Amino acid sequence: MDDLKHLSKESLSELLVIGQQLKIAALSLKKGGLNIVGECLKGQGDFYELSHYPQDDVYDAESKSQYYFHAHRGINGEYGHFHTFMRAPGMHASAKPIKNTSTEPWPSGNDALSHLVCISMNQEGVPIGLFTTNRWVTGEAWYRAEDVVPMIDQFEVDHAFPNLAVNLWISAMFRFYKSEIAELIVSRDEVIGEWQSKYLERDVFEDRDLEIASFKTIDVDQKIIAIQRALDA
């Protein structure tokens, strides 16, 4: 939480409000015997690894933000994770994917979406980590970090499917962890570059040996406490 020391009192106060919004969204579900993950799985039939929940993803037609939940990894304490995206029409005008020199096709035009970050969840529907992935994992077009980082501010889903509280929660996660997500995206590019230099004969974006590019554990409650302490100081 060292980065909090460099924030103004106004910025810290804004972060504290967002953290409280995260808690309220999760609590509103908990009071009804629900949780963030459960609302994405509701009414979707049997749960299968790699399947998207809800089916056909959650998409905001105004912001062009998109996400889905699924499970396929066995990292310690994780039940599954959210994949989040920005579709091309929602990006700032200067954002352009890099040239595809791979043998695998990349989505193009309005379909040239960019993956932003994964939100790792535990069995209780509590966020425990953030991470970025290699291109092949999500089948995205690849944008450089300097184009992806500004998309953090653009991500927002505020309609009622599958649940308004879930959508407000995941949107608030982007505000609350903006600096952490930005660092992970920058680190992602550094890891990709290092991997490409080390394995010149491989197509780095299709290399199954490189799946997770950057990872950070998170704890909403602990960050709220740290923000409050920084404000008190």
UniProtKB/TrEMBL annotation:
The lineage of its organism: Bacteria, Pseudomonadati, Pseudomonadota, Gammaproteobacteria, Thiotrichales. InterPro entries: DUF6969. It holds the Pfam family DUF6969. Residues 21-215 form the DUF6969 domain. This is DUF6969 domain-containing protein.
